[in-house]
Design goal:
It is a single chain. This protein is α/β, with parallel strands linked by helices and 616 residues long. Among the domains are: 153 residues, Up-down Bundle (Four Helix Bundle (Hemerythrin (Met), subunit A)), CATH 1.20.120; 231 residues, Aspartate Aminotransferase, domain 2 (3-Layer(aba) Sandwich). Strands 1-7-6-5-4-2-3 form a 7-stranded mixed beta sheet, sandwiched between helices. It binds pyridoxal-5'-phosphate. The site of pyridoxal-5'-phosphate (PLP) has 15 residues, from α11 and α12.
Length: 616
């Protein structure tokens, strides 16, 4: 459990405590049988993971008793006391634990969890009886928890599971479960399943959060890019400038419009679009520039806007990874270009429980067009002045996103705090840590991505993986070296910074619920390995086969697009639909190929945990 900070009411303190408990239980319940038999590292050494359940049930009973006694007026004894003494229990903690563990060993796991649950409820009831000032004061029960933690107990905060995933969606879900379930239930009771009250409300709330006049909810981030590119008037043969160091969808969306992606290199320090490279790439056919706010850090838009203005070039922000990050002019990502495109893929800072995306803009005409495009181009029901897409956002996802949006700022703050901690712990290790911008609000750390120079990245990744620490490479093969992009004619060596970055980047676990203790362990293992690892040889990175090169998404390997001689959208279904569409739809394309229905639940290490999710 993490320390309780910044709570201002008893209700808030109890809710936080309860949600921390729920998170830890969700993690325990997500483990397989084999995991439960594995040893616990650090404090609690000699225990197996299943012993934590017994220990915790025992601790909750002691704490509940103590809380009741304090509420009844028994004064907390002098420094140095502990819960056992306060409760009048003579046995040592080890004896109590051993006894409880023996009992629990003989019983089915569900019964053990039920006992833990009832012990926890007793503690919550005990805490609720305390006077507010005692609960919030440093020497109140929070102090009890602290003392218990420091002196009496083998830390409850011992990383409850040995595995630390790259992203742990279950941990977040545990904090909002009741609200989410109620919201889903409400949608199902209403049976209004696509664009309805939740989509309309979310569109308003998200626009107001980003600071734009409009937000148009769509089916995914790829839909957002595809519709935005189309609405900005990009036509077959037009050029659209973007980076080679991005997730594949940025470029896919350009190809869906039958336009030509012009790729540019990134800046060495920020790993983001290099404005000088953009200036060099402009031609008379340039119709749009797509800066990608990769990893959650925003690209400087001022120089790009300068390049774009007077040439009627649209700046389309790919803000799929930057929900809430500030731009160089102090507005939010998504409010700085003609349109902003967001993904609410499940692992994102603001993630749906399925697929979702949004387009933000201040342009009324564009907003109307986008609203029509997301629903088959219809103006009113069954009247289709243009050929559009099925790119609707559904009501369940919108309802979930509304709940999460209210917490986004807090979650982003926590991500920034974790990034600062990582940077401190990894300083001097030879690992290049991500720069924290002068205005820290310009980065929301969708991923915490370091660089491991000297050809040692893959060995470090394996080392961490063997110790149950999830990592990912964002991204291993630059777009210009992807097999499906060969027809664009780029070669190895065209973008030296991008290629170097692809060989060195490694994303470490990052999600708002990551505990300080988990971070310490990741940083500790990372620095230990760095000081011992031998130098590995560098390897060429052009991707010839999709098997090792395509990024994993929620356990689904992205389907590689077919190489094509022209710039039309590669998937054949999309192409034939394009061909059959009305001739009046000049730049018509179709919705992106549908994704597999595989749930967002595959682990980076596809072993035991069901809650781990690869960031896209
Ligand atoms: C930079 C970037 N662009 C576009 C997308 C596409 O978004 P989605 O996966 O929601 O289609 C992603 C998503 O994951 C992304 O990271």
């Amino acid at each position: 459990m993490t320390a309780t900070t910044g709570v201002t009411s008893q209700q808030e303190a109890l809710a936080l405590f309860d949600s921390e408990y729920a998170q830890a239980i969700a993690r325990l319940r997500g483990l397989s049988r084999e995991d439960l038999g594995r040893p616990v590292f650090g404090e609690g050494a000699g225990w197996r993971i299943r012993d934590l359940i017994a220990h915790w049930a025992m601790w909750q009973r002691l704490a509940a008793n103590a809380a009741e006694k304090i509420a009844a007026g028994t004064p907390w004894p002098a420094e140095g006391s502990n819960l056992r003494q306060f409760n009048g229990v003579a046995a040592s903690l080890d004896e109590l634990n051993a006894e409880r563990q023996r009992e629990f060993d003989a019983r089915p796991l569900d019964e053990c969890f039920a006992e833990l649950e009832s012990a926890h409820r007793a503690l919550m009831a005990g805490l609720a009886k305390l006077p507010e000032r005692d609960l919030l004061a440093p020497d109140g029960p929070e102090g009890i928890r602290k003392r218990q933690h420091d002196q009496d107990d083998r830390a409850m905060t011992t990383v409850v599971t040995q595995e630390i995933p790259l992203v742990d969606l279950k941990a977040q879900y545990a904090t909002i479960r009741d609200e989410v379930r109620a919201a889903i239930d409400e949608v199902l009771e209403s049976m209004q399943l696509t664009i309805g009250p939740n989509v309309r409300a979310f569109d308003q709330e998200f626009a107001s959060y980003i600071g734009t006049k409009h937000s148009i909810g769509v089916g995914s981030g790829t839909d957002a890019l595809q519709l935005a590119i189309r609405a900005c008037g990009v036509s077959p043969g037009d050029e659209v400038i973007t980076v080679s160091h991005t997730f594949f969808a940025t470029v896919e969306a350009i190809l869906y419009a039958s336009a030509r992606p012009i790729l540019v290199d990134v800046d060495e320090r920020s790993m983001l679009m290099d404005p000088a490279a953009v200036a060099n790439a402009i031609t008379a056919r340039t119709k749009a520039i797509i800066p990608v706010h990769l990893y959650g850090r925003t690209v400087d838009l001022k120089p790009l806007r300068q390049i774009a203005q007077d040439r009627n070039i649209a700046v389309i922000e790919d803000a799929a990874q930057a929900h809430g990050a500030l731009l160089d002019d102090g507005t939010k990502a998504g409010a700085g270009g003609r349109v902003g495109c967001f993904s609410f893929y499940c692992s994102k800072n603001l993630g749906a429980y399925g697929e979702a995306g949004s387009i933000t803009t201040n342009d009324d005409r564009l907003a109307d067009e986008l609203r029509a495009l997301r629903e088959h181009g219809q103006s009113t029901r069954y009247y289709h002045p243009v050929v559009g897409y099925n790119a609707r956002l559904d009501e369940i996802q919108a309802a979930i996103l509304r709940i999460k949006l209210r917490r986004l700022e807090r979650w982003n703050d926590r991500r920034r705090a974790l990034a600062r901690m990582y940077n401190e712990r990894l300083a001097g290790s030879g690992i290049v840590t991500p720069e924290i911008p002068a205005d820290a609000r310009r980065h929301v750390f969708y991923t915490y991505t370091v660089r491991v120079p000297g050809g040692r990245r893959d060995a470090l990744r394996k080392y961490l993986g063997d110790r149950g620490i999830g990592t990912q490479i964002h991204y291993p093969v630059p777009i210009h070296l992807q097999q499906s992009a060969e027809f664009l004619g780029y070669r190895q060596g065209d973008f030296p910074v991008t290629e170097r970055v692809a060989e060195e980047v490694l994303s470490l676990p990052m999600f708002a619920e990551l505990t300080d203790e988990q971070l310490e362990r990741v940083a500790g293992e990372t620095t230990t390995r760095r000081s011992r690892s031998p130098r590995a040889s560098a390897r060429p990175i052009r991707a010839r086969s999709s098997s090792s090169a395509t990024p994993e998404r929620c356990g689904v390997t992205a389907r590689p697009a077919r190489a094509s001689g022209d710039f039309s959208c590669a998937p054949s279904a999309a192409r034939s639909a394009t061909a059959s569409a009305s001739a009046s739809a000049s730049s018509c394309s179709t919705r992106t190929p549908s994704r597999s229905a595989t749930p967002c639940s595959s682990a980076t290490r596809p072993t035991s945990r069901g809650a781990t999710t690869d960031a896209a």
